[in-house]
């Protein structure tokens, strides 16, 4: 996507490493933030979102929203944001508009699976900010350190419909995967220090 400010790569050896990254990312998120989540079948998008939801402290079980397209998970209280979890695979701009995500955007963290190139400007506008997180089984061959826009789905082929049951036992138990996080817009002009420090750890 044009406008990329930075790119951070991280390999997760297991579920614990995935959760650690999700907790670090959750600590940087606030109401109004948009995370676009990309990755092929078995990439672990829903597994990652579960870890992120746990870190945010939201209520309810997080699963793939394929059949309902959108799920809203209430916050645990206080100033914590809600989590809006969306699957954009089977929709278009008109379908997204019907979900009325703009009405929940300001007081929620919004995570959209299969949303790359579809939701960013529809939700935050041409001058808006968002994070793009691409997950895949290592290596994510289409992504190079310092590369710009134009990467394809990490599965190497066309999109595959995911359901609540798509992730394998290996995904749930924590098979290795690689993450590529990209920042766009003024809100994400630089890599958050906590994520940069985590990424530098060996």
UniProtKB/TrEMBL annotation:
Please, which domain of life does this record's source organism belong to? Answer: Bacteria
Leader sequence segment: none
A Pfam family hit: TsaE
Q: Which coarse location class describes where this protein primarily resides?
A: cytoplasm
Task: Give an example GO cellular component term for this record.
Answer: cytoplasm
**GO biological process: what's one of them?**
tRNA threonylcarbamoyladenosine modification
Q: List the Gene Ontology MF annotations in alphabetical order.
A: ATP binding; metal ion binding; transferase activity
The UniProt record lists the keyword Nucleotide-binding: yes
Q: Where in the cell is it found?
A: Cytoplasm
Key words, A-Z: ATP-binding, Cytoplasm, Magnesium, Metal-binding, Nucleotide-binding, Transferase, tRNA processing
Keyword match Calcium: no
Where is the stretch described as Disordered? Answer: 141-172
Biological role: Required for the formation of a threonylcarbamoyl group on adenosine at position 37 (t(6)A37) in tRNAs that read codons beginning with adenine. Is involved in the transfer of the threonylcarbamoyl moiety of threonylcarbamoyl-AMP (TC-AMP) to the N6 group of A37, together with TsaD and TsaB. TsaE seems to play an indirect role in the t(6)A biosynthesis pathway, possibly in regulating the core enzymatic function of TsaD.
Family label: Belongs to the TsaE family.
Q: What is this protein called?
A: tRNA threonylcarbamoyladenosine biosynthesis protein TsaE
Its source organism is Nesterenkonia natronophila
């Amino acid at each position: 996507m044009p406008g990329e400010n930075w790119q951070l790569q991280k390999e997760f050896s297991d579920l614990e490493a995935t959760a650690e990254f999700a907790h670090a990312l959750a600590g940087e998120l606030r109401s109004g933030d948009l995370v676009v989540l990309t990755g092929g079948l078995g990439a672990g998008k829903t597994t990652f979102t579960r870890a992120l939801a746990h870190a945010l402290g939201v209520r309810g079980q997080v699963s793939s929203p394929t059949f309902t397209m959108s799920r809203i998970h209430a916050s645990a209280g206080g100033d914590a944001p809600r989590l809006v979890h969306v699957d954009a695979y089977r929709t278009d701009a008109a379908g997204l508009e019907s979900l009325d995500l703009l009405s929940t955007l300001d007081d929620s963290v919004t995570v959209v699976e299969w949303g790359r190139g579809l939701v960013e400007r529809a939700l935050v506008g041409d001058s808006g900010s968002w994070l793009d997180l691409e997950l895949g089984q290592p290596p994510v061959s289409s992504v190079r350190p310092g590369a710009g826009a134009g990467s394809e789905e990490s599965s190497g082929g066309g999109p595959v419909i995911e359901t609540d049951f798509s992730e394998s036992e290996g995904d749930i138990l924590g098979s290795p995967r690689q993450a590529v996080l990209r920042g766009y817009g003024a809100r994400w002009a630089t890599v958050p220090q906590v994520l940069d420090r985590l990424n530098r750890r060996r």
